[in-house]
């Protein structure tokens, strides 16, 4: 018998999932005298809840362990023999998936301490203060982009047909090294770095001709940011910056995720790769980089500058470690 308040007894009204659940419980209790569900038919699990937790713990202890290694460790610990697919199914139940690891520079305790100190000094900087920083860096772009994460759809026996083979060229088929800098309202021209960069070249070709004029346009409160590469910290460069009145920001080593220009290089690379036809040679690649650099919209620079406070907060929360940037 269905109770009068049960939604099944009310025709023409919207039913509630909660009320339907209550009705099922009452009907089950009326028919069987208990509210527990009957044992469902089907193949029982080959692992116990304790073994499932052990599988999760083994995966978390060694994040790089494969399903075959975890299977072998489980068999040694509990004498349970299950397939690798079962191992993966149990890990999926704990919301663990096999993914490619993020690539970041190695951080020593000294690096982490320097990151924390930098973030403590700048975490309360305002948007106006960050807008006075000229972020700079060099980046290398290759003519042929080798994407190791590319996936293709293929049938059995189609592994080596032209449509499913990713062709690679040694050393990317040639590359272009460029230097650039930007602030909230300014950007320098993109400079083609040819040959080895020395301290004297960095002073004459980049600082004197590009960085210093841009800093003068930004005003007396402008701050120059560059990384700790050897040419950037050469004695002639330090002397020139002091003579020119360049206010240089102290920058922690091995901190690309704190520098927003790294995200700008990724955006520039995507813009170039989306062009059809692709660049023919190195000179054509540099011309496309110049065109795309000039065409970058202002909203990208605004977003990157505004993200500096979040970067500092996230770096502090990770104790000077890695961030998602």
Strand element count: 4
Structural class, from helix and strand content? alpha+beta
Strand content: 5-15%
Order of helices and strands: HHHHHHEEEHEHHHHH
Could you give a short account of the major beta sheet? Answer: 4 strands, mixed
CATH architecture of the largest domain, by name, is 2-Layer Sandwich
Adjacency order of strands in the biggest sheet: 3-2-1-4
* Integer count of domains: 2
Into which percent range does the helicity of residues fall? 40-55%
- CATH class of the largest domain, named Alpha Beta
Poorly predicted runs are 1-5, 7-15
CATH topology of the largest domain: Nucleotidyltransferase, domain 5
Q: What's the CATH H-level homologous superfamily of the largest domain?
A: Ribonuclease H-like superfamily/Ribonuclease H
Q: What is the overall number of helices?
A: 12
The separation of the N and C termini measures 61 Å
**Overall body shape:** elongated
Mean pLDDT: 88
Radius of gyration: 30 Å
């Amino acid at each position: 018998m269905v109770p009068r308040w049960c939604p099944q007894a009310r025709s023409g009204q919207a039913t509630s999932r909660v009320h339907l659940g209550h009705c099922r419980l009452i009907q089950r209790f009326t028919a069987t005298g208990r509210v527990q569900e009957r044992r469902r038919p089907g193949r029982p699990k080959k692992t116990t809840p304790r073994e499932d937790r052990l599988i999760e713990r083994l995966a978390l202890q060694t994040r790089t362990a494969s399903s075959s290694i975890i299977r072998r460790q489980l068999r040694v610990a509990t004498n349970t023999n299950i397939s690798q697919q079962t191992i993966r199914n149990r890990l999926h139940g704990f919301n663990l998936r096999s993914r490619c690891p993020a690539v970041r520079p190695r951080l020593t305790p000294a690096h982490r301490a320097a990151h924390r100190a930098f973030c403590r000094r700048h975490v309360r900087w305002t948007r106006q203060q960050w807008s006075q920083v000229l972020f700079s860096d060099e980046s290398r772009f290759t003519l042929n982009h080798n994407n190791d994460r590319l996936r293709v759809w293929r049938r059995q026996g189609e592994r080596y047909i032209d449509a499913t083979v990713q062709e690679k060229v040694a050393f990317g088929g040639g590359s272009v090294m460029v230097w650039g800098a930007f602030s909230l309202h300014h950007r320098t021209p993109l400079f083609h770095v040819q040959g080895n960069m020395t301290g004297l070249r960095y002073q004459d070709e980049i600082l004197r001709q590009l960085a210093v004029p841009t800093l003068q346009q930004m005003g007396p409160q402008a701050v120059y940011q560059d990384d700790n590469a050897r040419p950037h910290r050469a004695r002639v460069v330090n002397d020139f910056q002091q003579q020119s009145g360049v206010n240089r920001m102290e920058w922690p080593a091995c901190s690309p995720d704190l520098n927003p220009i790294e995200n700008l290089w990724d955006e520039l690379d995507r813009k170039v790769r989306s062009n059809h036809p692709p660049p023919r040679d190195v000179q054509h690649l540099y011309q496309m980089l110049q065109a795309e650099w000039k065409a970058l919209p202002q909203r990208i620079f605004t977003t990157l500058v505004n993200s500096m406070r979040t970067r500092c907060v996230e770096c502090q929360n990770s104790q000077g470690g890695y961030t998602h940037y």
